[in-house]
Amino acid sequence: MAKKPNQLFARKPLAMLYQEMKDDNRLRRILGPVQLTARGVGAVIGAGIFVATGAAAHNVAGPSLMLSYVVAGITCIFAALCYAEFAAMVPVAGSAFTYAYATLGELFAWIIGWDLVLEYAVGSATVATGWSGYFQNVLAKLGIHIPKLLSESPWRWDGAAGHFVSTGSMINLPAIIIVAIVTVILVKGIHESATFNATMVGIKLAAVLFVIGVGAFFISTTNWHPFAPFGWTGISFFGHHVAGQVDAGGNPVGMLAGAAIIFFAYIGFDSVSTHTEEAKNPQRDVPIGIIASLLLCTVLYIGVVAVLTGMVKFDQLDINAPVSIAFKQKGIGWAEGLIATAGVAGITSVLLVMMLSGPRVFLAMARDGLVPKGFFGDVHPRFRTPWKSTILIGLFVMVGAGLAPIDFLLHLTNIGTLLAFVIVCAAVLIMRRKHPEAERPFRCPWVPFVPVMGILTCLLLMFSLPVGNWWRLGIWLLIGFVIYFAYGKRHSVMRMELEKAE
After folding, report:
1. Is the pLDDT reported for residue 296 higher than 80?
2. What is the pLDDT of residue 120?
3. Model's pTM, two decimal places?
4. Is 162 exposed, middle or buried (0-12, 13-18, 19+ CB in 10 A)?
5. For residue 1, what pLDDT band results from cuts at 50, 70 and 90?
6. What is the pLDDT of residue 147?
7. Three-state SS across 25-74?
8. Span 15-60, pLDDT tens digits
9. DSSP code of residue 151
């Protein structure tokens, strides 16, 4: 009797992926390179500039945060080149889930798919919480104040005490409302969301260029000294300090630690690959969208951090609204409201793209039978969107944004994304070896150097995160394993193919 193939590590043949591209139940191909680049910029430029820069410079890296963004950007470029090769080879929905299935097998595909859902859903909740803070700042300028009971999460994390404490609020109502609005837009259709996103991207790019152009005249180079007040490293290994300094809570600080924390600012460029199935010419347009959006955002991030830390001493930056407050401190108060309003628009576009991506990962998983196809694989007959999973993720994000504190959500998003990048970079190496003959409209350059460096730099940043992130990731993956072995493994399309082949 022939030995039964191991389903857990069975790889999805490229021929099956190419056949799926011909299926009638497909998403609508209407996105060009400009729209895809706008989606990438829409996902990346937002909370990173308008929220994360203040806390990271103030508490972790100082002016060396400029180099932190360079390190994080280079790390993302390695991963982006690997993403671009796969997106051009296999222009179907699913992003890294699909790539892992074709190279590493079903179990790894499930891990990365489940991890991507975590990245996009928790990331969306994080962004919605940041949006709420900026929106309330804008309302305050107009003399409108949301009641305390409805203004924020019921809890916040007290790092010094090591536990959650009450904020006196019941729920973050503005965050819930914006998630509900975005969910409706996404169910309605990809074209409507693309137009809305392009408008938001235009507003926030104008604001970012304004910050750099005007703020440059108020830079004092003395504010850049010392350039690295917390040191150049900041590395831990599962919570055990290895190099650099630590803060009062034992968490690593320094330039590299800053790169790990602000990595959240780059999350989103990979979401371009989840829209491959909706691209007009995916082999050309998706690589352009991924790489162009990443390079543009890296330059803008470095410019904004240089201006902020040059305008205001790093330890005097406001943590919650660093950009608008920095202008206020320099006597440019009229710009504060303008920047805060642009911040709301910018963060809205981030939320749009991140919430757009999760349902498309579920769609790919449903086509492979790993989650119920009748629900997660259902494409609306009129809007041609995965509407049921969009609504489900919208509800999940509402709960997270309404109840969870932003710092808890932020770190969990970072480590999940870095793990996804590690797997994508490894998958390129494996695919080059297993299928050298496969057509590659876009080829990642300098293989194996680029994928190997992508793996190493992502792992370095993962080890620079506080140990609590590893525990949260482990719990999420454990939940995923339970679902896979209880449902996915038994309903897998690959399982049926293997049984036919016996």
Report:
1. yes
2. 84
3. 0.80
4. exposed
5. very low
6. 93
7. CCCCCCECHHHHHHHHHHHHCCHHHHHHHHHHHHHHHHHHHHHHHHHHHH
8. 776 666 565 555 666 777 888 887 778 777 876 777 678 878 888 8
9. B
Residue 370 tokens, joined: 């790993």
The set of long-range contacts for 12-20, using a CB threshold of 8 Å and a minimum separation of 24, is: 12/98, 12/101, 12/102, 12/106, 12/109, 12/368, 12/494, 13/102, 14/89, 14/90, 14/102, 14/435, 14/438, 16/497, 17/90, 17/92, 17/98, 17/102, 18/90, 20/92, 20/367
Nearest C-alpha neighbor of 257 from the set 462, 114, 89: 462
- Where residue 2 falls among pLDDT bands split at 50, 70, 90? very low
- Tell which residue, 291, 275, 296, has the closest CA to residue 193: 275
What token pair was written down for 315? 């330890």
Q: What's the token pair of residue 210? A: 């304004």
Q: Which residue has the tokens 């352009």?
A: 288
CA dist 148 and 124 (Å) reads 23
Alpha helices in 312-384 (DSSP H): 322-329, 333-367, 373-376
The CA-atom distances, in angstroms, between 173 and each of 120, 123, 176, 320, 337 are 21, 18, 5, 18, 22
Token pair for 253: 């600080």
Which domains does the chain possess?
7-501 (1.20.1740.10)
Residues 6+ away with beta carbon under 8 Å from 120: 271, 354, 355, 357, 358, 361, 393
**Long-range Cβ contact pairs of 437-443 (< 8 A, separation 24 or more):** 438/14, 438/89, 439/89, 440/85, 440/88, 440/89, 441/88, 441/89, 441/283, 441/284, 441/287, 442/84, 442/85, 442/87, 442/88, 442/283, 442/284, 442/287, 443/85
* DSSP symbols for 283-325: HHHHHHHHHHHHHHHHHHHHHHHHHHHHHS-GGGS-SSSHHHH
Query: What is the mean pLDDT of the segment spanning 386-408?
Result: 90
pLDDT at 93 over 60: no
Cβ distance 413 to 109 under 8 Å? Answer: no
pLDDT one-digit tens code per residue, 160-184: 555 678 888 999 999 999 999 999 9
Nearest to 442 by CA among 291, 277, 296: 291
